[in-house]
Amino acid sequence: MPAKALRPPMRDAIVDAAIDTFARNPGASLSDVAKRAGVGRASLHRHFPSRGDLVTAISRQCMDEIDAATAAALADARSARDRLSRMMEAVVPLGDRYHFLATEAFHDESLQARYEEDLAWVARLVDALKAEGVIAPDVPRSWAVANIDTQVWLAWSEVAAGRLAPAHAADLALRTLLEGLGR
Amino acid sequence: MPAKALRPPMRDAIVDAAIDTFARNPGASLSDVAKRAGVGRASLHRHFPSRGDLVTAISRQCMDEIDAATAAALADARSARDRLSRMMEAVVPLGDRYHFLATEAFHDESLQARYEEDLAWVARLVDALKAEGVIAPDVPRSWAVANIDTQVWLAWSEVAAGRLAPAHAADLALRTLLEGLGR
DNA sequence: ACCGAATGATATATTTATGTATCAAATTGG
DNA sequence: CCAATTTGATACATAAATATATCATTCGGT
Predict the structure, then answer these.
(1) What is the pLDDT of residue B8?
(2) CATH assignment of A7-49, among 3.40.50.300, 3.40.50.1260, 1.10.10.60, 3.40.30.10
(3) Where is B60: in which H helix or E strand?
(4) Does this chain's domain A7-49 share its CATH topology with A59-179?
């Protein structure tokens, strides 16, 4: 009877379109975003007075989605390797979100802090993977972290380009990380 | 006595500065480029009437440098694996150039064709690596190509950030491609 | 020292993106 | 069906980047 949010508000459509647009072209104009969202530019400004407001909203949304997806995926992981595997599977479909955060310079202080927490989480995951012998000890931590980021984005790109199925892409990304392309 | 080109012309300084600037921020303004090159913005417009002219000049320069570096490095390579290894070592120091080309949409037709040739070269290299058993047969060609591109850029980034020495970065990139981070 | 070319600084015009205001039309909720 | 809100279209203002033109100064070659 309450029937809250029966119709997803225009705000969400704009945010989705903006993520999509900015992932492909970080310098895209607000007209581009409005066009992709199928709304007038004026309406966009009603929901997000300035470009910065939109970017902040996007950032928060991306973090929310990624945090939620990983939290669910990691619920009953039993090892670091398991956590990596589940994380990749969960995050690859959100690769555009992930990439947006990775290339965005945050103006909002709380978002900045939250993002750095996520980075630190990956760094700790890498350490745990080393402790389990999954990642070699002589691989620099920064190299491993950068590669995890990259493989997620790469996998998403291949899916978005229609060259790979989501599950296959995530599998290839994980395999490339842990065993390379060899054999 | 001819003493041609004793002092590198300002044109080269601008191109170098532009590559550097655009690699870090694709949306940088011409003022940024001029500042980094240490020249006036008016002088920049004398050598490159429009932004497009500058971008085209950069693209050509990047391709020239990369083609020259790889041609030299591949002179006496005896296997596909050898070609990959030498190519990576040669190209990682030019990673900013490489990445610029990979993210640039060419307006010039001849540059577009030349770039696609380079892409096709990498694709053939991947096929040869498969034939040698260096790359597994079930790895999609597009995945391998994308990973080679990415590892070059990643290695350069780590070098540029001062986290890795050039030789170490190229080695890690090659190893990550062929064996992953594992063991 | 002189001359010509190239440069930097400055001014100005043009374009593009951004942001604001207004209003008629459409959609929603009652 | 009606009223209130929301939307899209339009017009307008502002800011930033781009592009062009001018001129005094500097630099290199002679």
Answers:
(1) 58
(2) 1.10.10.60
(3) helix B51-73
(4) no
Q: What is the mean pLDDT of residues B73-94?
A: 96
Minimum-distance residue to C17 (CA–C1'): A29
Interface size A-B, in CB pairs within 8 Å, comes to 91
Judge whether residue B43 contacts strand C, using its CB and a 7 Å cut-off: yes
Tokens standing for A129?
A: 């993977």
**Distance, angstroms, CA A45 to C1' D5?**
17
Say which CATH superfamily domain A59-179 falls into. Answer: Tetracycline Repressor, domain 2 (1.10.357.10)
pLDDT, one tens digit per residue, over B95-144 is 999 999 999 989 899 999 999 999 999 999 999 999 999 999 999 999 99
User: B181 and A140 in contact by Cβ < 8 A?
Assistant: no
Residue with tokens 């945090």: A67
Smallest CA–CA separation between B129 and chain A, in Å?
9
CA→C1' distance for B38 and C12 (Å) = 24
* Pairwise CA distance, residues A98 & A64, whole Å: 11
A135 contacts in B (CB within 8 Å)? 181-182
When the candidates are 2.60.40.420, 2.30.22.10, 2.40.10.340, 1.10.10.60, the CATH number that belongs to B8-49 is 1.10.10.60
Task: Tell me which chain A residues have a C-beta less than 8 angstroms from the C-beta of B24.
Answer: none
A9 by Cβ neighbours in 10 Å (0-12 / 13-18 / 19+) ranks as: exposed
C1' (C3) to CA (B9) span, angstroms: 22
**Best CA proximity match to B86, nearest among B96, B72, B100, B98:** B72
Question: What is the spatial distance between Cα B74 and Cα B167, in angstroms, rounded to a whole number?
Answer: 17
Q: Is the CB of A42 under 7 A from strand D?
A: yes
- Residues B2-33: tens digit of each pLDDT: 333 344 588 999 999 999 999 999 999 999 99
DSSP category for residue B48? S
Q: At CA B17, angle to CA B12 and CA B21, rounded to 5? A: 150
Q: Do B164 and A26 touch (CB under 8 A)?
A: no
Q: Is the CB of A45 under 7 A from strand C?
A: yes
Each residue's pLDDT, cut to its tens digit, for chain A (183 residues) gives: 333 333 458 999 999 999 999 999 999 999 999 999 999 999 999 999 999 999 999 999 999 999 999 999 999 999 999 999 999 999 999 999 999 999 998 989 999 999 999 999 999 999 999 999 999 999 999 999 999 999 999 999 999 999 999 999 999 999 999 998 876
User: What does the domain layout of chain A look like in residue ranges?
Assistant: 7-49, 59-179
